[in-house]
Fold these 2 entries.
Entry 1:
Amino acid sequence: MKGRPTKADVARMANVSTATVSYVLNNSVGRTISAQTRAAVHSAAAELGYRPNLAARNLARGKSGVVLYIVPQLAGGEMPMQVGTHMTTELTRRGIMQVQLFETEQDDTVADAINHLQPIAVTSLFPLGCKASRAVNAAAIPHICVHTLPGLGDPQYSVGQMRVDHLVARGHRNVAFAYSGDRRWRALGDYWIDGVRRAARQHGLPDVVVKALTPDDSATMVGELHASGITAVCAQSDEVAFLVLDGLRHAGLRCPDDLAVIGVDATALSPFSVPALTTVAFDRTAIAEVALSAVLTELGVPDASRPAARDIATLVIREST
């Protein structure tokens, strides 16, 4: 047999009608089908590697069969897109279409997408903004928020612990957190700072000092941090860490001698900053597999490929610390 196995192939192998295959695999109620026939259909489907086309099934039920993957405003860097792409590929193999949508501040794109696409589920790597959350709740659609899944080990706190542990091991006691000065990205800082603060308390450090930086004032902000006795900065992202490094150069300070800097997300440019940036790298494939398993479970789709437990974040130590 060439190509993807069909319902007709299953019916021929089980010696039943295609309608019976549909009834069995869809667990249709009100149909009297013997246990022997059910077993024959399931056996044939397993032997052929047949997977029901969920998109077609949902269209027949008046639903789109679409999963809506939302990239929230707070999600910076390449990771959300890479995770979404991996999920899209794997869901497509199971007959499920995933549409990727970027959340915006000015309009109701998420609400419009829900109204027009009628998705069967919504997924996102990080928490949604207020407008998007209200739209999902109003539509009563399952929302799989990836960062909260048990298989990921609570990155909001584990990453903060990883960064602060490293700085403390380097002898730092006075730590700051650097936000982006662009308020559109404030939520990303809000997400990561909780883990840094909790780890600092566990080490008995002074309160974490907070600064927001822009390209225009980075030298001033960095100078103020250094003058106040801060010796290390956790940035909300690699991009903000680059701003800190730029501020250090313009302020005539040295990294890491005067101020150590650590980012998060291991962007492609992080090895090429001066000095090279210490950061946290994520295993995008592992994150996508955990998310995929959660989506399939929510949709009631059998999935034998449960992801094995593994660390999703790794500290990449370079010259900036």
Entry 2:
Amino acid sequence: MAFLTEAANRGSIATGYDIDNSLKLEEANTECINTPSSYSLITTSNVYKGTTSFWIKRTSLNNGSGVQWLFNGANSARYDGIYWDVNDKLKGYFSALGNGADFVTTQVFRDTSAWYHIVMAIDTSHSTASERIKFYVNGEQITAWDTSPSIDQNTQLTSLGTDAYHGWGTSYSYNLGASSDGSSEYLANCIHVDGQQLTSTDFGEFDDDSGIWKPKEYTGTYGNKGYLLEFKSSSALGTDTSGNGNDFTNNRNITSADQATDTPTNNFCTLFPQPTALGYGQEPSIKEGGTTMFGGGYSTQNAFGTIGVRSGKWYFESTITNSGGISTINHGFGVMDPEEITYVTVAGGRDIGSFPAGWSCSSNSSPRNNDAVASGANGTSALNENEIMGVALDMDNGKIWWHRQGTWTSLNNTVGNPVNGTEPAFSNLLTATDNFVVPGGGIYVYSGSEIRVMNFGGYAQAVFTAVGTYTDANGYGSFAYQPPSGYYALCSKNLARFG
């Protein structure tokens, strides 16, 4: 797992062109977005050329369990598509080439901390076979393939056909799909250009200073049946903003809550599960845009954030939506040196506050570090399910505070104040480790139904937005409670300010 840090803001970078919104799709909910069944994609005489460009941030991997579809074009009998296979390789399937004749990359794509930019550029009328279907990832044309089938000149592909319908997030988009194969991801700037074979540089560019591939505004034409999905309107997430009016109106299980602000130009922290150890799998499971952890086979299960910090002031939130029938004080969250994640797993069933460079707090306001309660901490009664806690992390001074429903923890009956730096739960974050720290959360598995939900601001679930929709000191994120003055969401635009 690669962490985003202040010095390595990989997968997202500040740019003069901003992408404000994305669409959160969840495989478990079979969420997808489709053109209507009356939509005839191509009405021009050229049915051999087209380009599809999109940005994607994965929130869960396949782990050999099944394919995850990203994009497809289908009619009543056939379909084309792009998906992650069971080995997390990118695959391109085209019905016209026959079963098993798939494009399969040699490269795997397993980074859930970064955004990928994918372009599929088609011109089957080209005289050179290798130029007829081209794929690009983050500005580079893919040339290393496990399999790369040949395409006859002037082959008609289903996704460019006169009766094709396009879909995102599931296979068989025709009539909303006969397949349950879906994908867990954020999608942004989904573009289809009708009648042109373009390249990745029409949609992105390398940053001169960092060398990071970043989005740029597409300024070309879209063709008669091209479209641009920016997901700007939460009430109409399938709106085509290219000017063509080719709206996606068949949206399965998509609601306004699936709009997110985690984008290629402002990448937010999300969760990944603790690594495999002691014969156990990747546990706990991660869902809902990388913000929810659940399940696991034994004792305490932990998940960790994809952004680490060593300086700056940061804020995030969490709640237990299902305690599994035991007190919420059995479930802690906070921050940890990522080098100790392996020890958490190997030790088996331990809270992150049990370790020298781990700090956590449960709902009774008894913060823990190195298996010891903060000196002078005033314990309280446990919170109920769906009641919210927050973290204020001051890595300029090595301090941390937690709040319960907006009231900061107290030491010796004095309430802490993250703004002026008084009465932190702990002040040893810069001395206990010389490394950066990442967010972490745990659930104590008792019944198997336990669920912890995190809010880093990029995708706030209803349990948070029902309380409030506050932004950070730079106006980013959506939080249930107002972050302390001078504190920031864990996102790339904020990190750039502290690099």
